[in-house]
Amino acid sequence: MKLSRFFLAIVLAGLTTTMSHAQQPTDWLPQGIEALRQIASSKTEFTLDHSMLVFASKLDADNEDLRRVIAGVSGVSVHRYHFVEPWQYDPGALSSVKEEYHSAGWKQLMNNHPKDGGPGVTDLWVRFENNAISNVVILLARANEVDFFVVSGSISPLDLSHLGGHFGIPRIEGGVLVPNNQRHP
Q1: Is the separation of the CB atoms in 137 and 124 below 8 Å?
Q2: For 121-142, how does the pLDDT look when each residue is reduced to its tens digit (9 = 90+)?
Q3: Of the residues 30, 79, 91, 123, which has the fewest C-beta atoms closer than 10 A?
Q4: pTM beyond 0.85
């Protein structure tokens, strides 16, 4: 009798885990991003899991803040799409991304558009679980490029600032993208 309860508990735990992952998988890309991906002239996409992030953080051995933040991060996905012509992509695809995250229960913390009303955008969304941020998404759209970053795991907005400049994530200060002036040989 005890053995059957044990197996039932394992099956229920497995189903609960499967169902929670089925609601929104971590590798989920909004349809708007997928549409941009299809028409981009070049794409750079990669995902780093926790062990890869820990390994990569060792390259910056003096940055204690980075290693502390990575301890709570389970993964980072970077999607960069380049377009030959300025504003070649459909701005409606960017709007649909906002709608998809909103309908999935994410909270938009930042929505920054250029003063002149141009089509560029910087958006930041967070997903909460148990009153803590569990995932963060950044969308940057410029004339010839759309960048989409997903950070999964326990992270605060301050922690996100420590990831800026690492793993392909841009530095953002006060809602403004900070250019990377470092040149690599």
Answers
A1: yes
A2: 888 888 888 877 889 898 999 9
A3: 91
A4: no
Locus of tokens 């002149």? 116
Q: How many whole angstroms from its chain centre is CA 77?
A: 6
Separation between Cα atoms, residue 42 and residue 128, nearest integer Å: 33
Identify residue 117 by its one-letter amino acid code.
Answer: G
- Structure confidence by residue, pLDDT tens digits, 24-70: 445 678 999 999 999 999 999 999 899 998 888 888 778 888 888 88
Rg (CA), the chain: 19
The residue type at 49: D
Token pair recorded at residue 22: 């089925």
Q: Looking at beta carbons, which pairs linking 105-109 to residues 24 or more positions away fall under 8 Å?
A: 106/135, 106/137, 109/157
Tokens of 40: 């981009």
